[in-house]
Amino acid sequence: MNTSQSQALFQKTYDYVRETSLLESTLALLEWDEQTGIPAHAAEFRANQVAFLSGLIHQRATNCDYGAWLSELANSELAHPSDSPVAASIRGLKRDFDKSVQLPLDLVTRTARAVTVGQQIWSLAKPKNDYAAFLPILKEIVALRREEATILSKNHACKYDSLLDQYEEHAKSDEIAVVFTELREQLVPLVQRLTNSKSGPDGKSIAGIFDVAQQQELSKWVATQIGFDFDRGRLDETVHPFCTTLGPHDHRILTRYFEDSFSSGLYGTLHEAGHGLYEQGLPTEWFGMPAGYAASLGVHESQSRLWENMVGRSREFWQWCLPHAQQRFPQLKNVSVDQIFADLNRVEPSLIRIEADEATYNLHILLRFELEKELIDGNLTCEELPSAWGDRYESYLGIRPKDDREGVMQDVHWAAGLIGYFPTYTLGNIFAAQLMAAAETELGDIPAMVANGDFAPLLNWLRQHVHSFGSCLKPTDLMEKATQSKLSSKPLMAYLTRKLVPLYG
Amino acid sequence: MNTSQSQALFQKTYDYVRETSLLESTLALLEWDEQTGIPAHAAEFRANQVAFLSGLIHQRATNCDYGAWLSELANSELAHPSDSPVAASIRGLKRDFDKSVQLPLDLVTRTARAVTVGQQIWSLAKPKNDYAAFLPILKEIVALRREEATILSKNHACKYDSLLDQYEEHAKSDEIAVVFTELREQLVPLVQRLTNSKSGPDGKSIAGIFDVAQQQELSKWVATQIGFDFDRGRLDETVHPFCTTLGPHDHRILTRYFEDSFSSGLYGTLHEAGHGLYEQGLPTEWFGMPAGYAASLGVHESQSRLWENMVGRSREFWQWCLPHAQQRFPQLKNVSVDQIFADLNRVEPSLIRIEADEATYNLHILLRFELEKELIDGNLTCEELPSAWGDRYESYLGIRPKDDREGVMQDVHWAAGLIGYFPTYTLGNIFAAQLMAAAETELGDIPAMVANGDFAPLLNWLRQHVHSFGSCLKPTDLMEKATQSKLSSKPLMAYLTRKLVPLYG
User: In which domain, by residue range, is B247 found?
Assistant: First the structure.
């Protein structure tokens, strides 16, 4: 092909993929609506709508002509330089196409069925603490994911990596394991040191009842202040907070409020607004194409954790925010910045991941990463999983679940087939600390800016060094370029130590 | 075809149409979401999503193979008896197919473009009172609709009827005109008599500020009490109230609240809940097929008007509802049933249709019906429209708009190409009164039931005589079967006279 032929073919491909994105974003609306108050009896028909649209999208994504265009483009001059938006999009689309045609339709269908059934059985078995009822479908799901991993693992050092790669492109589990092990070797003694301390925050300043309408207003106001653009987004309520994108200018964050929790709604908002800021910062002209995608789940999580924890749980954030919170909640009138800061940063080993504090959280993830890798590698059976889970909790956190409800059945992930997903949570925390350190090197005193409610310099730095790249760079390359360093647990450990040790005398 | 072949072909057609309905109901969700708080900058992409899905639906609806199936089915034994759900569905689908292929694509496209531009120009020209700016596009829209009417009018007595038929199937404008003229000849003197009276309600009992959160709760509670099923529906807020269906068990009503209006939010809810009750009463197994459609816009409007006005503005409704309203609004504490009943039924000639009372409302409709028919028949030009409008208002209501903002440009309908739509509003009022009279004949003292908050007998009667038929019968046949009478303005005039005259001494 000559240049103008390549460009015409790229334009045709672009138009085709952008059309597919109209269906994908409509599918996202069907799912958003399902999570924000769909009538009880409407769920079955909604599932039919979702299945039909998913089928249309699948047809388009596996269309032979489209695959041929991508092959031609991959061999054209447009595939260079490799980090241009055009080249990155061609590469990403071809990768997705190859993967979707590489997996037998039969396997895809059996997996889709198994994870639907898996989540149903899980939701029934968990409250009954009935791991035996969950075991057969879990075994089936693990077997199906291993089958998939075997097919996809040609280009990967181990089977697990081919699953991990679906959430964190190009990630290698042995490299991650090195950093995670380093992290664990420092986190376990830090957590012990903190929990053995005789002093420390007791949570009293944020105990009690907090009017939900006021929580809603504070959360929306805080999201606006950190830069979430409500002309291009919404904040709504749901059972499990999430963030979704319905168009290049339509980013929706969802949280939940409890009147007996000051922090759930607000930190749910900050976390999801962090995701939303990333989505709002992606290049809109590439919406629906890889150059407009987020780089990876780990990088996405770095944005949510950075705003939720490194900004939102800092002393300086509360210097700025407390007066605003006091206006809405009279019971905070006599609370000091130091008190609320300390109470929002209590460390306490616990059994439930989603309720964990910043320090222990990563230990919950690390052991899941180890266990799921062993499952896929064939070094652990589903029958052995509950006791391996208990042993690992005892070893890392010093506590053991009394049953499987608060143990191996607490998360939906494996029931939903999400194996290789957990490590992206801790990668997100590691990336966040690395990014924050790099931003401070360049911008200076970020805490002082936060104390003034001046979040724009930090957001602009993230826009420039992370958001604007879409997925043109590999996640590791993006992070190295932004932070001038390789993956390292040091900034995260330094941050946690610096913040938490003084709180515990 | 033998019987089993016909049945197999019908099943294939049913499956195909039900698949199309998955897209149509998804399109309805895109539109519902657009009206319930889509982010400001997201509207353009939403228009692309809507256009793409509309295109997919159009492709399916005009597919040649599908058309051939319908022709075969129309000639099969399944086409009899004609009022069976199967026969009615075949007939309705074939009718829609024939119409969609009868109109040249070029005309459809030009009309779609003109009404989009028309609404944009209207929304800019109306606040500036600039009819001259609106005139060219209005002329284009009228010309396009006349062109369409000419193509479709083979089976109709006049061009206008082929437009009317799209909203009220099989309706004949000359038959409607007879009844509308009768109605006008009685309404004009009734309104004069009421407005010349020296006594009458002054609206004071419902003046003042009404907490919006309490209005929301009262509205939702009332909707529940009259039978709207919130397990199969939702109540939300929007700028222009409407009702939409997103699935066989997903009916969404939307209203709007103003703190300085006690009645807007509540009567918006009652009106839309009336539509919603009809949708919830259609046979769900025929969802997406004509046997599961509402019979016509006029019949639909009869359901909304019946619940809004004949039930919701009755003295007995307020016997039941006032104590509940008083619990929420302390300012109603000393208001009597007679006072609030009277104040919610004030009659006053005014220029704006959507603010009109029950008596004058129909005069607003009648003159629009007369004018739009003259436009299509070629007896009136768009240039002459504003003065004809003013003359007709003066003649029917005794008042004349001082400008086109409160005159010919007040409604979006013609700018949106909706010509033939207006008469369905008054047909709805006429049908509602006929239905209510028939229901009373069969059920006895409905007002006494309403006074007890017992709405189920009336709803069940409507389910049995209207809702459950879908569109298996022609609207006129459905109404004659339910009411044992032909189209007549008598029950409506009797109802208005009985209710309103005593209020005006």
Answer: 207-339+444-473
